[in-house]
Specification:
about 45% helix; about 350 residues; binds nicotinamide-adenine-dinucleotide; six-stranded parallel β-sheet; alcohol dehydrogenase (NAD+) activity; 2 domains; ADH_Fe/GldA; Dehydroquinate synthase-like, alpha domain; three-stranded mixed β-sheet; oxidoreductase
């Protein structure tokens, strides 16, 4: 069976395009209903805050993402929005916009879905469990690399697993790609998140699920990453933004691999953010992705980045076991990376040895 893939309905690209948000939201369904803006709190009190088209009666809520998105957090923000809208005599907001990196965009996607689907977001971690379309949702990246702006998932840490809500309804109705918005990101964060894109491409291009669709997007995204991180000292934010988008398109029709599976374990147990977790894991994967890891180290060198080491040394046994469980639970990732008989190649012991190197 081929997947009939749902894509972002509309996107706008270009420096300064964020200033068209008001027009865009006026054209969305239910333009009179309150708009909810979920905004990374790094932008509180900045010029960007003043440019957000929040009218009197709309909700502008800053979101802290020191911790990556959790299901309980999503449910709480959903309840807050419902309360806010009810206090104005309404039922649902007209739109939910997420302005931030992958974390805030994922929170916006998940909140939009949980406004129209009963229960907790933890009930929907998995594949195609969402029944009802969410509230119209808009993604505005302020960091590039995750591909969250284009993907059909929102990655959440729940009571017992880190797993996305994967569904056609998760995909944004609108994204605004304004390269000016990623310009202020700190060098390290920009690199870690940018490498998420590079690693998406390596894992997609080296995976057994590869096809021409994924290759076309993956190769282009990888070239853009090289341009941004290896070949020039200038900041090519336009290219980085497109790399993220294309990298996301590449994995949409294939899958990620070993690095992402291990990185999920790192972030579940150590709370490490996705971008840096991927970098830490990828740096130990020369046996699986030799050329990709060489290139990654070159880019790290070129950008003057050094990674934390010894994160797993001395870890208690039960935490190590949990980390291995989280990683091995992600069966499609292993199958993409190592083929259908992956279980023979990737034992608990092998996963443990890889973690012990981090
Ligand atoms: P992030 O959103 O977690 O943000 C990292 C840090 O950068 C935060 O402190 C944030 O406040 C700050 N930040 C964001 N934009 C900034 C800017 N312009 N200037 C200064 N600081 C800024 O980072 P990320 O790497 O974009 O996202 C990681 C998250 O994305 C994880 O939760 C991961 O699970 C998720 N993810 C989702 C998908 C998907 O398809 N949905 C794919 C990959 C990763
Ligand atoms: Zn990723």
């Amino acid at each position: 069976m081929f997947r009939n893939f749902k894509n972002v309905s509309r996107f706008i690209f270009g420096r300064g395009c964020f200033d068209q948000m008001d027009d865009i939201l006026n054209e969305a369904p239910l333009p009179e209903a309150p708009r909810a803006f979920l905004v990374d709190d790094v932008f509180e009190g900045t010029d960007l805050e003043k440019r957000i088209p929040a009218r009197p009666g709309d909700l502008l809520r800053f979101v802290n993402v020191d911790d990556e998105p959790k299901t309980g957090r999503v449910d709480a923000i959903r309840d807050e929005i419902l309360e806010f809208v009810a206090s104005r005599g309404g039922d649902l907001p007209g739109s939910v916009s997420g302005i931030g990196g992958g974390s805030v965009m994922d929170i916006a996607k998940a909140v939009s879905l949980m406004l129209t689907n009963p229960g907790s977001s933890a009930d929907y971690q998995g594949w195609d469990l969402i029944q009802n379309p969410g509230v119209y949702h808009v993604g505005v990246p302020t960091l590039s690399g995750t591909g969250a702006e284009v993907s059909r998932t929102t990655v959440l840490t729940g009571p017992d697993k880190k797993l996305g809500i994967n569904s056609d309804h998760t995909v944004f109705d609108q994204v605004a790609l304004d390269p000016d918005l990623i310009g202020g990101a700190p060098k390290e964060q920009r690199f870690y998140t940018g490498m998420d894109c590079f690693i998406h491409c390596v894992e997609s291009l080296e995976g057994s699920f590869l096809n021409s669709f994924s290759r076309a997007y993956g190769e282009k995204a990888m070239d853009l990453c090289r341009r941004v991180f290896a070949e020039s000292d200038a900041r090519h934010d336009d290219d980085l933004m497109m790399a993220s988008y294309f990298g996301g398109m590449s994995i949409a029709y294939s899958q990620v691999g070993v690095c992402h599976a291990l990185s999920y374990g790192l972030s579940y147990v150590l709370g490490l953010h996705h971008g840096i977790g991927n970098c830490v894991a990828f740096d130990c994967l020369e046996d699986y992705y030799p050329e990709g890891v060489d290139e990654f180290r070159l880019m790290m060198d070129r950008q003057g980045i050094s990674l934390p080491r010894g994160l797993v040394q001395g870890m208690e046994e039960d935490r190590m076991e949990k980390m291995i469980d989280v990683a091995l639970f992600l069966e499609p990732l292993w199958e993409n990376a190592l083929g259908p008989d992956w279980k023979k190649k990737m034992t608990r012991e092998t996963v443990r040895r890889l973690y012990e190197r981090m």
